[in-house]
Amino acid sequence: MAIDTLIDALPSYAKDLKLNYSSLIRQNTELTPQQLWGTVVVSAIATRNDALTAAALEEAAKHLSAQALEAAKSAAAVMGMNNIYYRFLHLTSNEKYATLPAKLRMNALRTHGVEHVDFELWALAVSAINGCGKCVDSHEKVVREKGIGEEQILTIVRIASILHAIGTVLDTERVVAAETAAV
Length: 183
Description:
Blueprint: H1 3-8, H2 15-26, H3 33-47, H4 50-60, H5 66-91, H6 96-99, H7 116-130, H8 133-145, H9 150-182
Helix pairs in contact: 2-9, 3-4, 3-5, 3-7, 3-9, 5-7, 7-8, 7-9
Domain Carboxymuconolactone decarboxylase-like: 97-172
GO molecular function, one term: peroxiredoxin activity
Family: Belongs to the AhpD family.
C-alpha cells in the first residue's frame, strides 16, 4: 500500500498525525530528499509496524538510490542493536560495564556508502524512537559538528515521533479489527 494512502486512511482520532505528516513530509523544505526519505525508512523500521515499514520502503525506493535505501536499513539495524546496548550502559549504576569493550560489530557506521551526516541523522532518529539517551547525545553532537542546525535536527526528531505514533495507531487499529472479527 502506498504510504500516502496508508496515512490518509488513519482514523479521525489521528487527525493531528495526518496533518503533521503532511506538513513535514509532503511540504519538506529543511532536509534533502535523501535525509528525508532515509529518516522515513529508519523511523518506520524502528516502529516495527509491518504495514508502515512496507509502505515507507516502497515510497522511499522512488526517492533514494539503492545504496541509500540499503544504508538506511543498515542504520536502523545497527542502531537497533546499539540502542539496547548503550541504553543499558546508561541505565545501570554499575560503572564497570562502561570500561569493558562492547564486542559488537558496528562496521555499518563506517561502510554505509552515503553522506556521513545523513547516516548520522538516521542513527539519531532511530535512537530517539528507541529512547537511548547516550546514542541521541552522541549522534546529535556529530551532526551539529558537521553543520546541521537545531531546526534540521528537530525536523528529523519530529518525523521520527510522527512515524512512531502512526505505527502505534496502525497497531491499535489492527487489534481493534481483530477483536471485531472475533465477535
